[in-house]
Amino acid sequence: MNQESVKILFFMNRSKENSKGVCPLYCRITYSGKRKQFSTGIFVDPGHWSAKKQLVITEAPTARNLNGHLAVIRQKLQLAFLALDLEGTPFDVGDITAKYFGKKVRKEVTLVQYFRDYLTRQSKLIGKDIKVSTWKKFEYVCNDVESFLWYKYKVRDIPIRKLKEQFLEDFQYYLKTEKEQKQVTVNKAIQRLRKPVKVAVGEGYLESDPFTRHKPGRVNKVVVFLTKEELEILEIHEFTQTRLQLVKDLFIFCCYTGLAYREMSDLKKVHIIKGFDGNDWIMMKREKTGKDIAVPLLPRAISIIEKYKANGDHVLPKFSNQKINSYLKEIADIVGFKKTISHHTARKTFASTVLLYNDVPMEIVSELLGHSSLKITQEYYGKVVRRRVSEEMERLKKSNSFKELE
What's the whole-model pTM score? Predict the structure, then answer.
């Protein structure tokens, strides 16, 4: 039950004294730091009103009736407050006055409940506009918001109208310290929280976006990829264990195609199509973005396809991403790599060592990777290009054919 109480105060508005020398009495309600006032319809001689006692003080017969009227107003307001409090849903001072006057009380929209309603609506779009994995990511954020509210305020929900920019700052701090999430994950969580909040603005539950001034935390994007030398070392190494040799082949295949794990796992022979140039191409959709991708098959990738061509409808053997990443750690130790590699490192290697280090333009790299925009490619691989420029400049400095202008 609510620990706050409603405060009721009657006061005289002397600025509205009429020709008979009497002033109207107003009622002011204060609840949860907010005020609301209305006219009681009662007029009193200023000399007969005691603000301290909240009573009409005169021997006139009308005084008892006036004070009785004020007591009834106070009682009805208290009953309206108690009725709303017993309902167990958040309310404000405007709802108390609405209840008093017999008007329909506006239902308070709360953050977690609205987020869950949003998730329910979005669930009907799974398989149409969104993937179930995307929907689940939003659900995880909703659960984190609920746990944050309990951790910070010891409540399960809050009115959506009470959202301030500070809420995101506190939520971000909670995700970092209590959930131990990295900045990139935190940024994604806040991005997903803001989506239903923006919808709430559009539906009129909020006058404006309370988070419009929020800026995502800075993330240092470090691209881990195999250098040309490391890729060559891995390619020529033959593993005696079948499982390691298979994982190596899957990894090398993606180093020369740029396929993410899901696309590699789903790649079927029907996706290998003879292109306009007479060469074989991979033609399929990027699972993450739904964008069409077209990747020409390089000789090294073709040799791996030939090696596993008796694999039924699929181009390559099925292997879980978890096991691949586990075995790649073993592979890195065996060949002497100091860096930690995962299946996704192959995709980064394709973009960096195979494409950018061979002067393939950034826009073509973006197209081959199936990125939704060139900006994403530039954000991740801009440093790779700068590194290549630096290496070329160093090579030029050491070259005997180069002489600085004097």
Answer: 0.56
